[in-house]
From TrEMBL, chains A, B, C:
The lineage of its organism: Eukaryota, Viridiplantae, Streptophyta, Embryophyta, Tracheophyta. It comes from the Eukaryota. It comes from Smallanthus sonchifolius. This is Uncharacterized protein.
Length: 186, 186, 186
């Protein structure tokens, strides 16, 4: 086959227009994705041995009590956590990593949280970390936060994590299902 | 027109050198930009009904009082907020979204803050979130923070937000003008 | 030299496959890198003049005391800092910028922290900011966090920062060596 060179140039030019270099078309399907669960057991004054998170900040109206929420939607209550990550929704499954960071409630009118945390993996399957931040309007069935970076196996990755509350019990336990979708892999 | 193939190859090679793939040239003009204002009314012990933010952490020298700042530059005072976003600088304009997150003051010598927050939109105009972090040296007229990710309409976007203090009143109210400039759109 | 056009097309096609546009190959060597040190002097109740950081949050079991850690691994203790950055490991060297942000300890069983902070530069050498988040398992000699964005000289940069504890003294002072490696420059 022999094509006219002019055609070749035009074809190449079209390819360039379509390339991310020119911001016109980027893939909207993940280059990698994973589903994980993590389990949060909040310190309530009686469960020191089992708790994986604790309130460390609260507004004035909490009167310095960090084990009971002073109001319905927990505005301002800030928790630090080190939660086990599992591959299924069973709290007793072997952890494959740790979810470490903070969340705080940030609405006076509904259940709304904000998250800043990392997934930390150090197993034969995954080594490295994934870093997340974003708003978590917990009353919505499914919500998206940003995957802002990664290290190790997830070197420089970016993406979106879709979060669902998989279980919620007695103000002490919740389980989140996290669908990590990387759209930028390296 | 018929060009020598050698020339074509050379031309293509130059195009590649100029492409982000090789980190040499990226566009420095926004692919999208917006101006928003958000309004912060800090809880001072008397304005529970109107307050949109509250101090939830302070250093030891604050003696547990989270409604009065113990020192001039508020070092260590940490606030959680859920502030209305408007399109103009009028506090009474209809909100188009919420700015949700935290700020804390982090200097003993000047007014300096650090921000971690999201813009949350759920209207016909915008659906999705934009996530921000960065240093906010409030004594400078204009300062830049990072737009580290987005979801929904702002899927995977990155950029810079230029922040200006548009109003500041009596330790209780401030209004920020936020010029969100996306340089990476998807 | 005259190559068959078919060959040219095939060659161009290969180049495209290798381009980041198609997520297959991205450079894993930094486009820029720097080594910095920053110095943290934690407020302990007696060093108000020298302290560069202060605890602003702690769990209930800390009983409101923010100058003494209630347990071995400091779970939940949250510090705000404004630390000098130097080019070498000497605390008395002239600062070239400030590291501003927060860290908190997030494990009940080992020394583990989480970081959210910015490097702020305003000198003839560097003007701009670099924004970081990530898990900091301080018991490991070297650990990686994400560089999630930058402004000014570091406009839109992304990368990895490799952190090492360069010194640790008496619960009051630590020095971190930070190797900032940008893999995405603009």
């Amino acid at each position: 086959m022999k094509l006219p060179t002019t055609f070749v140039i035009f074809f190449i030019f079209l390819l360039f227009l379509a390339s991310p270099a020119y911001g016109i078309e980027k893939q909207h399907y993940p280059c990698k994705d994973f589903v994980f669960y993590f389990h949060d057991v909040l310190y309530n004054g009686k469960n020191a041995a089992n708790a994986t998170s604790a309130i460390v900040g609260a507004p004035q109206w909490g009167n310095g009590n960090l084990t009971v929420f002073a109001d319905a939607f927990r505005f301002g209550y800030t928790a630090i956590f080190d939660d086990p990550i599992t591959l299924d929704n069973n709290f007793h499954s072997a952890p494959v990593g740790r979810a470490q960071g903070m969340y705080f409630y940030d609405s006076k009118k509904i259940f709304n949280a904000w998250l800043g945390f990392s997934f930390v993996f150090n197993s034969t399957q995954h080594k490295g970390t994934i870093n997340f931040i974003g708003a978590d309007p917990t009353t919505e069935k499914s919500r998206d936060i940003s995957v802002v970076g990664g290290t190790g196996d997830f070197f420089m990755h970016r993406g979106i994590a879709t979060i669902m509350t998989d279980s919620y019990e007695d103000d002490v336990y919740f389980r989140l299902r996290v669908h990590v979708k990387f759209y930028e892999c390296w």
